[in-house]
Amino acid sequence: MPDEPVAVLSEVARTYGGVPVLESVSLGFVPGVTAVVGPNGSGKSTLLRVLVGATEPTAGEVTLPGATGPRPIGYLPQRVPFREGFTARETLAFYARLVGDDPDAALERVGLGDAGDRRVEALSGGMRRLLGIAQSVLGDPSLVALDEPASGLDPGMRERAFRAAAERADADTAVVVCSHALDLVDEHADRVVLLRRGEIAAAGPLDRLLDEHDAADARALYLAVTGEAAGQAGGEGSEGGAEGEDESDGDETEPAVHVTGVSDR
Amino acid sequence: MTGPLIGVATVFRRELATVVRTPGYGVLAVGLFLVVVGLLAAGGGGATGFVPAVVDLLLPTEVLVPLVAVVLGYRALLSDAESGELAVIRTYPVRVGEYVVGVLLARTVALVAVVGVPYALVGGVVWLTAAPDTGIFATHAGVDSPVLFVRFLAFVLLLGAAYVSLAAAVSALAASRRSAIALGVLALVAGVLGGDLLLLRSLDAGTSPATIPGSLALTPNGAFRGLVFEHVIGVAFAPEGEFVATGRAVGSLVVWPLLGAVVSGAALAYGRRVDAAIEELRSGFGG
Fold it and tell me: Does domain A7-233 have CATH number 3.40.50.300?
C-alpha cells in the first residue's frame, strides 16, 4: 500500500466561541481505512468537517495532494441530512447526476436495492445511514470521510455499515471513519488516530500502536491512551442511542483544559 | 448539457420537486386567489374593467406579493445549510453560484405559479364578467384592454421575483429558521414601507419633486408602482408628465433579483471564512 497521503492537515486549529476544539493537528491520511477515535468532545467531528472543507480552520491548512477526479472527497456527516419527501432512489439520483454515476448501482452496493422506492423518512436509522454511505462514495472519491457510520445501529446493521465503508478503501482511496465502535475498528481499520481534548494523543498503524502500548485490542489501546474506559466513549453501536445523539463536539460542547498531544505526520 | 448547466439543472430540478411536494404552497396560491377576488369584489373595480381592477389591486398587491415571495424564499438557502446537506452538496462538482442560481430559478418558477396563476385567473374573471366590453386589445391610450392587465401581471411577477431573491439572500445570511423569519419580516417591512418613507424624508429635506420619477424607481415597490401608473393606469387617461423613469424602473426590478443572488452567493461562498476569521479575532482577544 503506498504511503503517499491523499490528504494532509498541517497545524490545523479550530475554536468555537473562543474555545479550542482542535489544536495544532498535523496528520496525513494515506490509502486504507483510518479510524478516528476519542472521547466525546475530543474534536473528531470537527476534524472530519475541517478535512472535507465543511468547516474552515482558524489556523493551519488542509491540502489534498492525492485526491483527484471530479469529486475528490466523499462525506457523510454524523446526522444523515437528506431531504424528506424524496425516495432513496431520488435522493441518490440527485447526487449521482452531478458526477455521472448510477444511483441504482449505488443502492445495490449497500444492499438497499429493494428500498429504492421508499421515502427517506420511512427508512430505518440504519438504512438511512447506508443510504448516506452510498451517497458518500458516488463519483469514486479518493478520500471518503464518514462521521460515525455505525452510530445508533443494531449489531448486524453496524457491521454492515462499517463493512460497506471499509470496502471502499483500496490502493488509491483513503477512508476516514470517526467511530466509537472499537470492535469494528479492530476488525476494519488499518490506522488509528486517537484524539484527546482536541489534540492527537496517538496516531499510526493500528498494529504498531497496539505493540507500542502493549494493548491487546483497540479498546485496551483506547484505555491506555485516553485513560478512559471505552464504554464511556458514547453510544455508537448496539448500545447506542438514537440516531442524532451525537458526540456533539464542535460548537455544542465546551472542551475542558487541553493537554499537549502528540502530533503524528 | 455541460458542467455548469448540469449543476444548475440538477439543483433546479430538486428544488422544484421540493416546492411541488410542499402542500403549503398550494394553499398559499388558493389563499392569494381568494384574497384577490375578495378585494376586487369589495372594491367593485373588477366589474367595470381591467384598469379599475388594477386600481383596486395595486396597493394590496404591494404588500401581498412581497409577503408571498418572502414565504417562498425565506428558507430557500437555509434548509440545506441547517440540515447539514449543504456540506455534502459542496463535496460534489457544483459551484456555489450554480447552486444559488438553481435554487433561485426554481423558487421564481414557484412564484410564477403561486402568484401568477391566481392573478391570471382573476384577469380571466374580469375579462368574462366586466362591463362594458373589455375584449378590445388597445393600441392607443384611453381604451381598457386585457393587454393592460397582462402588463400589470408582468410587473407583479417582476416585483415578486425581486422579493424572492432578496428573501433567499436573507435565508443565506440567517443562522436559524427563527432568525430567517425575523430577517424576512424586516426585509418585507423595509421593502414595502422603507422606500416611500425615505422618499418622503428626502422631499421634506428639500429635494425637488422633479426627482421623484427617478428616485421612486430605485426600490422594488416604487419601481413597480411607477410602472403600473405609467404603463397600465396612466394609459387610460393620458396623464401629463411621467410617474417614473421607465428604463430605470425596469432596470431596478432586474437589478434587485441579481443583487439578491449575488448576496446569497457571497454569503454561502465566504460565510465559513468569515466565521473562522471572527473566531480568530475572538481567540486573539481572549488570550
Answer: yes
